C-alpha cells in the first residue's frame, strides 16, 4: 500500500500554478491513497475543483474523492482524500470525521477511510498560533479527541495509518536549529511534543519515517520568509504514523523536498500488507 500526504497550502492555488502537480506526484509515488491538508476550499469543496457533473480535471484514476471543508471560516483549513481502487486499497467507506473536539470540528480537519486492509486517517492538526493562543485547546481538547478516535478504530481489529500535517516537530532532529528559542513557538513547545509522545505510546503507533530512517535530518516545512527553504532551515511537521504491528512491514518511508508548490513537501509510506 502506498500512502502519500501533502499540505498543499491552498488546493485551487496549487492547481492554478501547477495543474499537473498532483498527477505527477501520484505517478512518481504510485500512490494508492493520496491525502491533502490545508485545501482552503469553501463548502462547495468538490464542485470548486472537480466541477459539477464533469470528469475530474486531476487524479482521474482516483474514483473515491472526499473533501472536508471549514464551515467556521471560508477559505480556511480543510482536508481531501483520493483513493485509487486496487488490490491494496479496496474501499469500504470514507467520511468527514467529527471528533467532539469543540470548534475544531467545524474546520474540516479530519477524514477517515476504511479499506479492506486498514483504516486511513487524514488530519490537519490545529496550529497553536503565533501567540500560542490555541495551545491549551490544541493539547487538552484536540489531542485527547484524536487519541480516542485512533484507539476506537484500533479496537475494530484493523491497523490504523494516521497521517497529515501534525503541526509538531517531535524531536530536536526534526527542527533545523534554535531549539531553546523555538521551544516557545507553535510546533515545538514542550506541551505539543509531549502530546505527540503520548499519542504514539497510548495508541501504539510508530513514526514510520523515523522508524525507517532513524538518523535522517529531513524537513517537510519551510517558512516563506528569509529564504528558509534555500537554506534548509525547516521543520518536520508532516508525518505518516502507523499501528506498531505494521512496523516490520515498512518498505519505504520518505519525504520529497524537491516537490514544490507549497511551503510543505509531500511525505510517503510504502507498506506491505
Automatic annotation (TrEMBL):
Site-annotated residues for Important for catalytic activity: 238
Cofactors demanded by this protein: Mg(2+); Mn(2+)
Keyword DNA damage: yes
Domain Endonuclease/exonuclease/phosphatase, chain residue ranges per copy: 4-264
Marked site (Transition state stabilizer) residue numbers: 167
CDD domains attached to this UniProt entry: Ape1-like_AP-endo
Cofactor annotation remark: Probably binds two magnesium or manganese ions per subunit.
Organism classification: Eukaryota, Viridiplantae, Chlorophyta, Mamiellophyceae, Mamiellales
Residues engaged in binding Mg(2+): 7, 38, 165, 167, 263-264
Protein name: Endonuclease/exonuclease/phosphatase domain-containing protein
Amino acid at each position: 500500500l502506498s500512502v502519500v500526504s501533502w499540505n498543499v497550502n491552498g488546493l485551487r492555488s496549487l492547481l492554478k500554478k501547477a495543474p499537473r502537480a498532483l498527477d505527477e506526484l501520484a505517478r512518481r509515488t504510485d500512490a494508492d491513497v493520496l491525502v491533502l491538508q490545508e485545501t482552503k476550499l469553501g463548502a462547495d469543496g468538490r464542485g470548486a475543483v472537480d466541477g459539477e457533473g464533469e470528469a475530474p480535471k486531476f487524479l482521474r484514476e482516483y474514483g473515491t474523492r472526499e473533501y472536508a471543508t471549514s464551515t467556521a471560516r471560508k477559505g480556511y483549513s480543510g482536508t481531501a482524500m483520493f483513493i485509487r481502487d486496487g488490490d491494496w486499497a479496496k474501499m469500504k467507506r470514507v467520511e468527514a470525521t467529527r471528533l467532539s473536539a469543540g470548534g475544531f470540528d467545524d474546520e474540516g480537519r479530519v477524514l477517515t477511510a476504511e479499506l479492506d486492509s486498514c483504516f486511513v486517517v487524514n488530519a490537519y492538526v490545529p496550529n497553536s498560533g503565533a501567540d500560542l493562543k490555541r495551545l491549551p485547546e490544541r493539547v487538552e481538547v484536540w489531542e485527547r479527541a484524536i487519541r480516542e478516535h485512533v484507539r476506537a478504530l484500533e479496537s475494530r481489529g484493523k491497523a490504523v495509518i494516521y497521517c497529515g500535517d501534525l503541526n509538531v516537530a517531535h524531536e530536536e532532529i526534526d527542527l533545523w536549529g534554535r531549539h531553546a528559542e523555538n521551544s516557545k513557538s507553535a510546533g515545538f513547545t514542550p506541551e505539543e511534543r509531549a502530546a505527540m509522545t503520548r499519542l504514539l505510546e497510548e495508541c501504539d503507533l510508530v513514526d514510520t519515517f523515523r522508524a525507517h530512517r532513524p538518523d535522517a535530518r529531513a524537513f517537510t516545512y519551510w517558512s516563506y520568509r528569509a529564504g528558509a527553504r534555500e537554506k534548509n532551515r525547516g521543520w518536520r511537521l508532516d508525518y505518516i504514523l502507523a499501528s506498531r504491528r505494521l512496523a516490520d512491514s515498512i518498505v519505504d518511508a520518505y519525504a520529497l523536498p524537491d516537490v514544490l508548490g507549497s511551503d510543505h513537501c509531500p511525505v510517503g509510506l510504502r507498506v506491505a500488507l
